[in-house]
Amino acid sequence: MTEQYQHRARKRFGQNFLHDAGVIDRILRSVHARPGEHVLEIGPGQGALTEGILDSGAQLDVVEIDKDLAQILTQQFAARENFSLHQGDALKFDFNTLGAAPGTLRVVGNLPYNISTPLIFHLLHNAHLIKDMHFMLQKEVVERMAAGPGGGDWGRLSIMVQYHCRVEHLFNVGPGAFNPPPKVDSAIVRMVPYETLPHPAKDHRLLERVVREAFNQRRKTLRNTLKALMPNEAIEATGVDGSRRPEQLSLEEFVRLADKLHELGDPA
Ligand code: SAM
Q1: Which residue among 11, 40, 42, 64 is best mutated to probe the pocket of ligand 1, counting the most ligand atoms within 8 A of its Cβ?
Q2: pTM
Q3: Which residue's CA is minimally distant from atom 23 of ligand 1?
Q4: How much distance in Å is there from the Cα of 126 to the middle of ligand 1?
Q5: What is the CA radius of gyration of the chain?
Q6: Fewer CB atoms near the end CB (10 Å): N or C, the chain?
Q7: Are 110 and 53 in contact, with CB atoms under 8 Å apart?
Q8: Which fold has domain 3-193?
Q9: Domain with CATH 3.40.50.150 in the chain
């Protein structure tokens, strides 16, 4: 038994380690890192994806919260010139410290499912640095990210991700590819931040606010859910019918509502 297999998976860090060589290879081929590129891997764990990325010749920074795993990774990869390890919490990590030029950073990770949504929001706030992202996530989360308006999957996550990025659901991965196997199905998603936003809001924080407020009670009409933010006349002035429910609105319509709020003055 090699040293790396003596590590006991820690539930609190969402540790499900990839062991299926076919799946690992398929992810690496989807990412297709090249020499001269700058890759950030979040949660490298026991290095299932790390080794292949290092072999590509790209510069690789990894952020791992688990001190024991960080030690194992250091033993395994410290001699590689293109490897840099940051032991700490990716949710608190300042991506600007990596020194990547705008629009160049490639982010990769088999993410801990318990923090995947806040982590994606943290990354979206740094979207200007990022060229693309490839993540393993719970399949249900990928479905929500890639959803269109009109169904139950369309919500805050879909809208905020699609505001910044083009989203592609690449392929699904069953629990058997991991050790220990998770209770849910997983999927690989590719997210590519737009160089020019298709529907820019005057203030993206107001867009986040409107969307959060609207989906707090997704069964109610907009005129009800947005009552605290804007009167129905303001909603109707954007051309949106206040009797519609939030899940029926497109991203572009939410941006119109956020811009109206901007015009009325920040209610905060
Ligand atoms: N990439 C490895 C693989 O595919 O086998 C491990 C994936 S495992 C699902 C998630 C990894 O993220 C674990 O190594 C865990 O320790 C790490 N992790 C959990 N929370 C983290 C956080 N807040 N910041 C950085 N790493 C974290």
Answers
A1: 64
A2: 0.94
A3: 89
A4: 20
A5: 20
A6: N
A7: no
A8: Rossmann fold (3.40.50)
A9: 3-193
